[in-house]
Amino acid sequence: MNNQELFNLFKHSKLAQVAKPLQKPLRGKGSVPTHQIVYTPKSSAIRSSFGIKTSLPKQIGFSHIVFNDIDNPKNMPDVEKYSGPHYNRLKFQESGLVLKNYYSEKNPLFPSDSTKISANLKSSVDSVIAELNLNNESTPEDVRQILKRNPDLYEKFQKWLTKNSPESYMTNMPSKLKKLAREFLSSEAVSKKEFSLSDIANKGGSKIRIQGTGGFSYNQRGRLANSPNGIKNGVIMPGRMVGDREAAIGGFIANVNDRTTMLQYNYSKNFPGKHSRQFVMPFKVNDAEITDNGRVKLYADGVKVGSWMLKGYNPDASEVTYEASNPNFESAGERNRKDNVPLESLLNLISNSKK
């Protein structure tokens, strides 16, 4: 095939009709979200009305779109579909999981000392760098710049110590000197790092911490959850194994206990003619937490289910029991009752032998 034949084949193919993006993908790995996310209901999307000045083709679909261009009535912006995170959030809310957040103990809607960014920063970074508006992600270059702004830092500390705590020269207690050094660094005598808009856009700069749950879940911790079948003691969600210790559950990668999923993983990996990710299996989600940078972490255990996983399977039986691979799936009372049975039998044997 010569170049002319290849050109004619490409010219009349559907690949030639695909629009070439004018810039890099909008859903890139940028540190700051500069794009606009637009949601439209299905009734408006059928009329190609997404709330912008120009109509979009029906191939865009429904739900969410994202674009970076300036909206104008003459040119259609370069848009992309962006409905994945929206449905991940809906699936997470439908599961009924309670999202744990260890970085904001109180309600973030009401200001307090624990909900302020500066207080969270100083409490999380147990170092003197927190007094200089730095964090664990600060580079050595940031520290050098602050030292250049304070060339006579030692002389200032000596003067400040003479004025505020002169008895420290005689006692020389390290714990007290450390406390006084922090007070000195937090005072106005020291030039600290000044925050600007460029620090927010900088990938390695100081980042604010997540407060609240980010809209993923509004369920209260410890609240009783009911279902049509009774009280819910756990959350069972479908997922796929993507590794020996990882599973895709509800659009998130969860950490699973390999002891509870070893049989499922080996079965799906060695099944002839199918890929391991084609098997959907149940998981018991134990915990869900949100980190300080906004990432959601799930911790789950495998659940033994199906005829091929039950040891005492009887094909003639009308009902198939589902047993949990994790003994903690049962309530505390049931576990204690099972643990007391062998102890009671042992005590009965001892008492009978004495008689």
Average per-residue pLDDT, rounded, comes to 72
Helix content: 25-40%
Order of helices and strands: HEHEEHEHHHHHHEEEEEHEEEH
Reported for the largest beta sheet, the result is:
5 strands, mixed, barrel
Q: Count of helical segments?
A: 11
Q: Rg, please?
A: 30 Å
Low-pLDDT runs:
114-124, 320-331
Strand content bin: 15-25%
Shape: flat
Task: Quote the distance from N terminus to C terminus.
Answer: 99 Å
Number of domains: 3
Structural class: alpha+beta
**Number of beta-strand segments:** 12
Spatial ordering of strands, largest sheet? 7-8-9-11-10
InterPro entries: Rbsml_bS1m-like
GO molecular function: structural constituent of ribosome
Pfam families: Mit_ribos_Mrp51
Protein name: Piso0_004604 protein
Summarize this structure as a short list of keywords or feature phrases.
355 residues, 5-stranded mixed beta barrel, 3-stranded antiparallel sheet, 11 helices, 32% helix
